[in-house]
Design brief:
One of its GO terms (molecular function) is aspartic-type endopeptidase activity. With about 325 residues, this protein is mostly helical. The protein has 9 helices and no strands. Helices cover about 70% and strands about 0% of the residues. Helix 4 crosses helix 9.
């Protein structure tokens, strides 16, 4: 269908609002899922006085602003992280709308095929799962299977029902093709991360990476395909570099001052940075794949053939 700029702006505004609502729900998931609590009941409440939050105060972002970041009942502060997560998800929903729909509209010369919105919805599900995983891992150094295993199932199932929905070159023509593409992405993501986890653990004599990182990469592969999973795994550490350097400085300062250090001073959660890598790929894939990633994988494939044939010879 033909579209105009005002209509696209209206859609973007609506999607930001939708994303903030999803972000509000993710706040509940982040708080409750690690403790195996229901995300539906009871209703949202103040974490200090446990009084229920009224519907008028539970409006994403604005509810927190109107209350000045404090509970209406006990006046204790409510963490700013809640509206920030709501704004983050809203912003990401708009960002993937720009990539999947607005950019797709240009490719289709002003037309707006309905399948572009299906692609947006597919990526929005992945974004929501990654946001929940990220903040749980930051808080507790765990990534619940309730998120990642569910994500694997959803990624494979949607890729089977809509085999064209994954990014190139992981698109497929048939349902079976979509199914096996999802399974391949899942296995490559899991095996790559699992192998690094095993080797790292053997090298340092302790667990180098959590099993949740393995299932997280499996979920990313199920959604995006094995090529994107490989790139996300190697891009992710660059997002974590600043955090790692900060931890290192803090650890060295404690050692020099004679203060006691704990394992928390030497550990960083890897899941958030894998998630950031995956989000970066979702937002850049239309340009990244044709720009250099396709040539990179082609070169690596040729090198692999050359090495294997050389060994056999």
């Amino acid at each position: 269908m033909p579209t105009t700029l005002p209509l696209l702006l209206l859609m973007g505004t609506w999607l930001f609002a939708l994303g903030s609502v999803v972000g509000s729900f993710l706040n509940v998931c982040i708080y409750r899922i690690p403790w195996q609590k229901s995300v539906i009941w009871p209703a949202s409440h103040c974490p200090k006085c446990w009084s229920a939050i009224a519907a008028r105060d539970n409006v994403p972002i604005f509810g927190w602003l109107v209350l000045g970041g404090k509970c209406r009942t006990c006046r204790n502060p409510i963490a700013i992280r809640y509206p920030l997560i709501e704004a983050l998800v809203g912003t990401l929903f708009v960002a993937i709308f720009i990539v999947d729909v607005v950019h797709g509209r240009r490719v289709w010369q002003g037309e707006l095929p309905s399948w572009l919105f299906a692609t947006w919805f597919y990526h929005a599900i992945l974004i929501a799962l990654l946001v929940a995983s990220t903040f749980i891992d930051y808080d507790l150094y765990i990534i619940p299977d309730a998120i990642t295993v569910t994500g694997m199932i959803v990624g494979v199932a949607l890729g089977t029902a809509y085999p064209w929905i994954r990014p190139e070159p992981s698109t497929a023509l048939t349902a079976w093709g979509g199914f096996w593409t999802g399974v391949a992405g899942l296995l490559v993501g899991a095996c790559l991360t699992g192998a690094v986890r095993l080797l790292g653990s053997l090298a340092v004599g302790r667990e180098a990476m959590g099993l949740g990182d393995v299932t997280l990469m499996a979920m990313i592969g199920a959604f995006l395909g094995w090529q994107a999973a490989v790139l996300a795994f190697f891009i992710g550490p660059f997002f974590g570099l600043a955090h790692a350097l900060g931890k290192l400085v803090k650890y060295v300062a404690k050692r020099l001052s004679g203060a006691k250090s704990s394992s928390a001073d030497r550990e960083i959660p890897f899941g958030p940075y894998l998630s950031m890598g995956a989000v970066a790929l979702v937002l850049s894939w239309p340009w990244l794949w044709d720009g250099w990633a396709k040539d990179l994988f082609h070169t690596l494939f040729v090198l692999f053939l050359w090495v294997t044939m050389g060994v056999e010879g």
